[in-house]
Amino acid sequence: MPHTDHAPAPAPITVERAEPAFVALAPQIESEPAPTVVAKAPAAATAGAGDAIEPPHFNVAYLNNPRPAYPPVARRLGLEGVVVLRVQVSAKGTPEQVVIAQTSGASLLDDAALKAVQGWTFVPARRGETPIAHAVVDVPIRFRLQD
Predict the structure, then answer these.
(1) Count of alpha carbons within 13 angstroms of residue 42, beta-carbon side
(2) Of 68, 67, 65, 70, whose CA–CA distance to 95 is shortest?
(3) Is residue 102, in this structure, part of any structural domain at all?
(4) Is residue 77 part of a domain?
(5) Residue 3 counted as domain residue
(6) Which residues of the chain have pLDDT under 50?
(7) Quick count: other Cβ atoms within 10 Å of Cβ 14?
(8) Contacts of 112 (CB under 8 A, 6+ apart)
(9) What is the CATH number of the domain that holds 111?
(10) Among candidates 133, 140, 125, 129, which has minimal Cα distance to 56?
């Protein structure tokens, strides 16, 4: 049976309510620590000891992946939650498939996360220097209202 290394539980990206809207662009948001990612390489890619796989990830500052917009209706309704998206990443770093691995419990939040992550860029998985297609990464996104 192939051996798969597991990373620690991912730290979710937090999407917070900000009043007024321009606060969301403040420099302190860009200086937050990068989120941790749980990545899973295809089983066949982990077969040999000399075939070390670097999983795909999205936590590199230059990727400029925007946080999902907090849906205004979800704000008014006071909806919060964490959605975990499972993203299959191409060898070029684009999402091939994005599915909900864990719902937030609110379709408005789930849909906002899906829409944003479908436009993200990822660093593809690699075997040595060769990009690997179809590697999977879990992306947790937390929607949280603040007082």
Answers:
(1) 15
(2) 65
(3) yes
(4) yes
(5) no
(6) 1-9, 16-49
(7) 16
(8) 15, 68, 69, 70, 71, 74, 143
(9) 3.30.2420.10
(10) 125
What is the residue whose two structure tokens read 């937390």? 142
User: Residues with Cβ < 8 Å from 58, sequence gap 6 or more?
Assistant: 35, 37, 65, 120, 121, 122, 123, 137, 139
User: pTM to 2 decimals?
Assistant: 0.65
φ, ψ for residue 108, nearest 5 deg: -60, -45
pLDDT tens profile 101-116: 999 999 999 999 999 9
Angle (CA) 71 72 78, round 5°: 90
* Number of structural domains found in the chain: 1
Start-to-end C-alpha separation, the chain: 50
User: What digits encode the pLDDT tens for the residues 113-129?
Assistant: 999 999 999 999 999 88
| Domain-located, residue 24 | yes
